[in-house]
Amino acid sequence: VLVLGGLLLFSACSGGQSGEVTQSVPPTSDSPAATALPTALPTVQVVVATQTAAPEPTPTSAQTPSLPADLEILTYRTFEGLKELTRLPYDRVIDLAFSPDHRYLRLRQALTEDTHNDIFLDLEKGEESFSLEGGQRVYFGPESKSIASLDGNSLTVYDLGSGETKLQYNSRYQIAALSPDGRTIIEIEDVEEGTGTTFRAVDLTSAASSFASPNTYITTIWDFRTGRVRYSTYGYSEVALHPFGSEIAISSAKQSYISLVSTVTWQQKIYLGPAENGPSYYSVEYSGGGRLIYALIDDEEGNSTVQFWYPPSGEELPFAADQNLLAVAVSPDNKLLAVSYQDGSVVLWGVPE
């Protein structure tokens, strides 16, 4: 589940067909015509708080090598100048993310099938800030001074510098996502076993929901402010929203390419990758300002690599990273590239001035 500005995205399990749904189309020279989609009906829900214990953060003191002060912005012109800046000894890092002010780097280490350890590196001080162990999903606060941890039906806000608990919210429903401004949460309720799921966006006193029946994956994007469905397709998809909101990038488990779809016309603009017999793309993301787009790729042997493109033209950009990658992230200022490897290391890349 992703919450993207004023757009909400849900990849839902569903078995019947609820309303008209548009399917993604293979790339052609002509953009597909827009199709009218059903309107999501708003509802009002009452949220009742429950008591849930929040995980205790663990202080750490490991040191991180310092980084160069002056780095070039990563663009299609500077990309070939990428150099390895530092290598960090962290194994099993399955996810990476930078804070909005690019000061902190979150490293997620897999512990078991259901639990992991989130480590927060202070890149300015060159040391670990603290860590959280559990099954939580973590969001950086927009001001880069706090993190919000979602675990089951509990939301806990921690101070990013000290790890101290600042706020806790509990719901009777599962909390699925948090909006970038930290003001809206998305909750999921199973209406009845085997009949479907209700998604609910809660912003203090107002709510909006959408229903999906079981046994089929449907990806739906709608405007939270109006409740209008903007785009919908069958099949599990990964979706990234351009930082300026002008387009979305969609990769599907059933397709070997990434579609770039305009959020104005909701028509396919361009596609990235081969149209047939190509690799499977996942973890699609835009870099800061939308200057680059990147995705991880699985090959036939089960190895993972990363591919970068220049979005306006679809031009592929070379990156001399080894195979067997686990995660990739680009800092919001577009100057640092973090890559984790299966060999037990995390490498920070950049272009020194």
Tally of strands: 29
Spatially, the strands of the biggest sheet line up as 3-8-7-6-5
Q: Structural class, from secondary structure content?
A: mainly beta
Oligomer: single chain
Task: Report on this structure.
- The structure is a single chain.
- It is built from no helices and 29 strands.
- The chain is mostly beta strands and 353 residues long.
- It has a five-stranded antiparallel β-sheet, with no helix packed on it.
- A hairpin with a 5-residue loop joins strand 20 (247-252) and strand 21 (258-262).
Provide a short characterization of the protein structure:
The chain has 353 residues and is mostly beta strands. The protein has no helices and 29 strands.
Write the layout of secondary structure elements.
Elements: E1 2-4, E2 7-13, E3 58-59, E4 83-88, E5 93-98, E6 104-110, E7 116-122, E8 127-134, E9 137-140, E10 146-151, E11 154-159, E12 165-170, E13 174-178, E14 185-190, E15 197-203, E16 206-212, E17 217-223, E18 229-234, E19 237-241, E20 247-252, E21 258-262, E22 268-272, E23 280-286, E24 293-298, E25 304-310, E26 315-317, E27 325-330, E28 337-341, E29 345-350
Antiparallel strand pairs: 1-2, 2-17, 3-8, 4-29, 5-6, 6-7, 7-8, 9-10, 10-11, 11-12, 13-14, 14-15, 15-16, 17-18, 19-20, 20-21, 21-22, 23-24, 24-25, 25-26, 27-28, 28-29
Question: Which descriptors would you attach to this protein?
Answer:
five-stranded antiparallel beta sheet, mainly beta, disordered N terminus, 29 strands
